[in-house]
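New to this. Explain these tokens.
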Amino acid sequence: MRFGIPSFLVAVLLAAVSMVSAQDSRFSPQRQQIPTPGCLNMKGAWEGGSAPCTQNEHDAWLSDIRHWRNERRIRIGYDGSRYDLPALKWTQSSFLQPQMMVEDRYFYDPVAHRYTVDRYLDDLEKRYGGIDAVLIWPTYPNMGIDNRNQHDMIRSMPGGIPGVRQMIADFHRRGVRVLFPMMMWDQGTRDPGMPWPEAIATLMAEIGADGINGDTQDGVPLAFSLAADKTGHPLAFEPEGGPADEALAWNVLTWGQYQYPFVPMVDKYKWLETRHQVNISDRWKRDKTDNLQFAFLNGVGWECWENIWGIWNGITPRDAEATRRVATMERALAPFLISPDWEPLAPMLRYGVFASRWPLGRQTVWTIVNRNEYNVEGPQIELALEDGMRYFDLYHGVELTPAKSLSGRMLLSFPIEAHGYGALLASHSAPDADIQKLMSKMKELSLTPLAAYSHEWKVVLQQIVPIAATKPPSGSPADMLKIPEGDFDFRVAGIEIEGSDDIGVDVQYPWEDSPGRFHDHPMHLKSFWIDKYAVTNAQFKKFLDATHYHPQDDLNFLRDWKDGNYPSGWENKPVTWVSLEDARAYAAWAGKRLPHEWEWQYAAQGTDGRTYPWGNTWNAEAVPAADKGRTMHGPDAVDAHPQGASPFGVMDLVGNVWQWTEEFQDEHTRGGILRGGSYYQPQGSIWYFPQAYKLGEHGKLLMMAPSMDRSGALGFRCVQDAE
């Protein structure tokens, strides 16, 4: 036929279709989760009504997904030998793992200049029972403010590499494993000078870390595991997204990015390899019930992440207590939760109560969740009679007395509270010492119902760090301009990449009742003096010569200087690689202070709300040319762009170097407000620290310690009170 398909092409297409559909399954995975039997879903009368799943329906579903698993392992040539490595066995019982920002004030004390690992861990022990591993996060959202790459950020942590190594040893002393992130999108900052697999493996071996989280990665390639093995220091790799099934052989951890229907679905990776550990990640969710119930039913863990890029999404007391109980049971039952004979959604009697069955030798454990909003009591499970078998309610820490059903089978009755948990043990012998210890602990914990704990989520409030007033100058200070008293509409928004406009994002000014991204406040400002230009290298050198100032934490201090002096020709460039503390020390010596943010903006904007200091239209001549390379050539001289002057004549406000202003604190995080943007703009990713050239925008730098906070694209200017 003139318009027909040739017979050989038909054969090829049929073969392709056959290959695609060869793996028969009525329950093919949906991303990372395997669907559940339709009979578990409640149906309305117009759909024929609901009826409990029959044993045949359950067995058919289980047979289907077992068939899928067996065939899938063949298709990917699965080899699970990596899970047998002694160096990686810890992952199989690593159930609670927070992502911890290095800026968390429970982790590091910037006043005492020391890591406070015990304080951090003691807080988590007290609130929800502690953790098994920690993902230490030193990079995003600060990375990209200068050309330090992801590993330079680790090297910038207090104490440098020796300090980081000792900090990791402190975690290990408490039985907590340590992971760091890797960002394959980090291709715009300093080139590491070697392939990334080698760079990562070498640094992690040097500091003694245990694993790597693959940020934004759908699977960490095998090359990274091989590079780590070559150093003699194997690493556990944990991609953020779901890897190709083949990568399960070397990615022994993953995050779980789940959907949460009423009937809990089965994790695909845990089903393919029961020794695989998943940490469910759902960082913005304020109610953790879904996370914990899906984790408990799948025998996996949870990414108990609260400090999200400096935005605190704390665990409520009710969720904290549920976490304590779930983790207590999972840790004690860890050998059961890797059983290759795992039976998910094992039959239960009551609607909305779901269980997984975990056989191990002559014992069996069930992990159980109540998805209902109400308590469920009475008979919960029906089992075949088995001579000599004893049954234990592990959640309540008591032995159960079976009753016979009308069909001659055995019934077990126990209560499960609303959105609660249960666990059973069937054993021919008395529980061993570990299970007895678990039962004793759970009996104590379960005396108080979860409903007795508050489930109210609360925002963490912030305080602005006061800036003390200065003495007015006796005359007209050199290189300063007097800004007149006036009314000013202080309108500014944070440029954080994530967090939308949720409460808790950005900062909380003294006149606000909570932190938020958008701010608009009419103010009356008194007259003040402000530096016409940002503080230069030459000016900072005079300060050093006069005071012999040297910070206690001197890592990265004046990093681009050599032998106590700035590079030749840099005298009129803004000083950089100075922390907020360094800038304050200079200001105090000069009889000045750092500006309040609204003073900086008023001096830059005047009273007409303009977009840039020079007006509302972008003028490329008013700012330095952007540096989009992987090395920083340094800022321009402070007087190089006179077209950038503000209505008051203030210069060098935008586009050369960021400038320090306010500091905000809450219980867990410090943040410095930066104004003006910088000339340095690393390319290749949306995740680098964004720019804020517009006067209605500010940057927030999460602050840890001077060594981390200093930057090659961050300087300052000073003000002095006029009256």
